[in-house]
């Protein structure tokens, strides 16, 4: 038993190390290249604790508990259910944040963050603004600060690695943690750390694997392919297929085929085993093309590949035959193609795809019964997409997919710090009612910009449309001037020095 416990501890420690991007960067470039001539930090300079998810920076303001804690709700079948909680002081800050968003004055959010440098929603909101303005370093820094604040509030039993800790997305206090993890994961992937990003993807999925509120199953295959975790992806598909029907998702249908193809190209493998992987790759890819023919043309278009005339002229893959494709399926296809097309651009992969496309056309011409069977399944299964898929598409910011969102999604208010909240949210505290300000008829576009640019107003008459673009530029510039001034010259008031800087005498409600 002791030996087994030590092994489990060692595995958990390795997973925790994999959450640190420096581990992956050192593997690629070596420790010297990653660390450079970094010098040790001054001892206890800002009293930052060492954490697993983030590396605290000396440039950060001194940390004082912002009013967030985590409590254990229940334990059942070795699974622990937790929730974050806001104390009364933090609730008041949250109300002020919502007021700042609605005030149409960006300086109010800036001022709020000056007084409360670890307020989560303010950090998430300003990170989005920085990212839009291509200040990636500051955007990433703000997200890391939010994660640091969360990790300081973890319950002693909460585990990042066991897969047995749960957080209910229905509770608003938990949702910001999901979003901070997601945004951090995407920054890691763009920095060239797909293996580390994959660990965060697994972490997000483990927090609520049954409902998967951010629909990480639409992303995990991409990160596994980027990380060359081919066997792991095949194993995941086998383990989850029975209860989650992963093959009904276009991303798994094509990514699993691509996994088998890459394994068939490994020269250090037994020839018969390579042939077996190649045979399976062909079979799975053909089934995927028959089930989801709408993927081929958009994929080739993004790969800047001109298909053969026999393909473009055939009714099965022709664009006009896809007009009646269910909108939910169009959304999933656009998401997969927009995210993974670079993985299909390799010459060997394209040659393999071309060969199987020709085989599929032959199967269609000879009236393979599978073609009609899959056509019927497409019409029945993809009539509508659940809310978590729409939420994932919004977070992905892949234009091909967001343009496929249904009207009922794009016409409702959306805020960047809480996109598409669940309709059955569990509310623990409510914002005091505010004096009526008149009925609002703002469009989704207006509300979206106001979530990022609180001073933006799209309520212009028809005669003012010509100046709307100029007004938007002015608002963006005004916000960024305020943001850059704050981030460059901000001075935080240091709290009184204590023997134990982490002592928290606040009473929690």
TrEMBL record:
GO terms for cellular component: RQC complex. It comes from the Eukaryota. It holds the Pfam family Tcf25. InterPro entries: TCF25/Rqc1, TPR-like_helical_dom_sf. This is Transcription factor 25 (basic helix-loop-helix).
């Amino acid at each position: 038993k002791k030996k087994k416990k030590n092994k489990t501890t060692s595995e958990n420690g390795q997973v925790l190390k994999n959450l640190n991007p420096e581990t992956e960067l050192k593997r690629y470039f070596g420790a010297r290249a990653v660390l450079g001539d970094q010098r040790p930090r001054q001892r206890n300079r800002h009293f930052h604790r060492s954490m697993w998810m983030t590396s605290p920076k000396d440039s950060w303001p001194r940390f004082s508990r912002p009013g967030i804690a985590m409590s254990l709700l229940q334990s059942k079948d070795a699974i622990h259910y937790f929730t974050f909680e806001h104390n009364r002081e933090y609730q008041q800050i949250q109300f002020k944040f919502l007021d700042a968003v609605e005030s149409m004055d960006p300086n109010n959010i800036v001022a709020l963050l000056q007084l409360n440098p670890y307020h989560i929603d303010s950090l998430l909101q300003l990170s989005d603004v920085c990212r839009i303005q291509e200040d990636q370093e500051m955007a990433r820094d703000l997200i890391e600060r939010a994660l640091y604040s969360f990790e300081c509030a973890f319950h002693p039993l909460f585990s990042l690695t066991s897969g047995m800790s749960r957080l209910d997305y229905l509770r608003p206090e938990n949702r910001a943690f999901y979003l901070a993890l997601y945004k951090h994961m995407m920054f890691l992937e763009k920095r060239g750390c797909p293996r580390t990003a994959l660990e965060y993807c697994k972490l997000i999925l483990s927090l609520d694997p049954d409902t998967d509120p951010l629909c990480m199953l639409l992303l995990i295959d991409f990160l596994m392919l980027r990380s060359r975790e081919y066997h792991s992806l095949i194993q995941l598909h086998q383990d989850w297929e029975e209860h989650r029907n992963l093959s009904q998702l276009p991303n798994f249908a094509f990514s699993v085929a691509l996994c088998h193809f890459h394994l068939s190209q490994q020269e250090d493998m037994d020839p018969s085993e390579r042939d077996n992987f190649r045979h399976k790759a062909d079979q799975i890819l053909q089934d995927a093309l028959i089930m989801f023919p709408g993927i081929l043309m958009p994929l080739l278009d993004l790969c800047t590949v001109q298909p053969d005339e026999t393909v473009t002229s055939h009714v099965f893959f022709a664009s006009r035959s896809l007009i009646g494709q269910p909108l939910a399926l169009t959304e999933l296809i656009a998401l997969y193609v927009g995210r993974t097309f670079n993985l299909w651009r390799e010459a060997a992969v394209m040659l393999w795809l071309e060969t199987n496309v020709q085989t599929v056309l032959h199967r269609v011409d000879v009236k393979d019964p599978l073609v009609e069977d899959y056509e019927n399944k497409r019409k029945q299964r993809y009539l509508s997409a659940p809310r978590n898929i729409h939420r994932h598409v919004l977070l992905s910011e892949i234009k091909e997919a967001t343009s496929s969102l249904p009207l009922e999604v794009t016409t409702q208010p959306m805020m960047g710090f809480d996109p598409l909240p669940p309709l059955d949210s569990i509310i623990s505290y409510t914002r005091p009612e505010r004096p009526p300000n008149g009925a609002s008829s703002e469009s989704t576009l207006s509300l979206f910009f106001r979530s990022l640019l609180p001073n933006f107003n799209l309520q212009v008459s028809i005669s003012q449309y010509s100046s709307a673009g100029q007004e938007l530029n002015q608002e963006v510039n005004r916000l960024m001037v305020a943001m850059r001034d704050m981030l460059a010259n901000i001075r935080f008031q240091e709290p009184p020095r204590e023997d134990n800087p982490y002592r928290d005498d606040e009473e929690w409600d």
